[in-house]
Design goal:
about 30% helix, about 210 residues, alpha/beta, two-stranded antiparallel ribbon
Length: about 210
């Protein structure tokens, strides 16, 4: 089966170009100042401008207010909004309506019940879901995986991505267990915290392509 990949937390022209060149379907830019992967609005504008229309540009937001959304969207560098905070169903619907952009909500998974709860809460509102680990000090990019069997055989009514602790060495097994058709990586392709590696991006994407 074809599996799509998202490289998140990109911050340099070199790594953006590598993600595109080696076949990423999505590239992600972080707008959360507490993250080591956070980039400025102008950097987002410049990096987003390098990405061809065949690749979806994703902005990662954590409980954003309208002013922040307006500022980042004004760059013209975002095609999809990824909400990684504790946004309610109502707030997600409002953001989608107000911005006229597709929205992906991240579900923090620590137990099997979190998967069910996330699907029930958001699947009628969002365009995509992402399942990520609930562990860690940051909303994403913590290099920690959750129990993939929580998703085994699970029916999800909207397209979804698997995230949390993925890397070139374990992504094939993660896809086998979960049946994921799309995967997201950030820390798993870094040579140090917040610093992406072109070689690891290539290895991850080549592994996913082989699936």
């Amino acid at each position: 089966m074809t599996v799509e990949a998202k490289i998140c937390g990109l911050s340099t022209p070199e790594t953006v170009d590598a993600a595109v060149r080696f076949g990423a379907h999505f590239v992600g830019f972080v707008t959360y100042p507490k993250s080591p992967r956070h980039i400025s609005t102008e950097t987002m504008r410049a990096l987003g401008g390098r990405v061809p229309k065949t690749v979806i540009r994703v902005g990662l937001f954590v409980d954003p207010d309208d002013a922040l959304l307006d500022e980042k969207l004004a760059t013209g560098a975002l095609d999809l909004l990824q909400l990684h905070g504790v946004e309610t169903r109502e707030r997600v619907a409002e953001i989608k309506r107000r911005t006229a952009k597709p929205v992906m909500k991240v579900i923090k998974v620590g137990a099997a019940a979190d998967v069910e709860r996330g699907i029930a809460t958001y699947s009628g509102v969002v365009d995509r879901l992402m399942f990520d680990t609930a562990e860690g000090t940051l909303p994403g990019g913590n290099a920690k995986a959750f129990d993939w069997t929580f998703l085994s055989g699970r029916s999800v009514p909207v397209p979804w991505l698997l995230a949390g602790g993925l890397n070139p060495g374990n992504v094939a097994e993660a896809v086998r267990v979960t049946g994921a058709r799309a995967v997201d990586v950030s820390s798993g392709v870094e040579k140090s915290r917040g610093v992406k590696s072109v070689d690891l991006i290539r290895a991850f994407l080549e592994t996913v392509k082989a699936l």
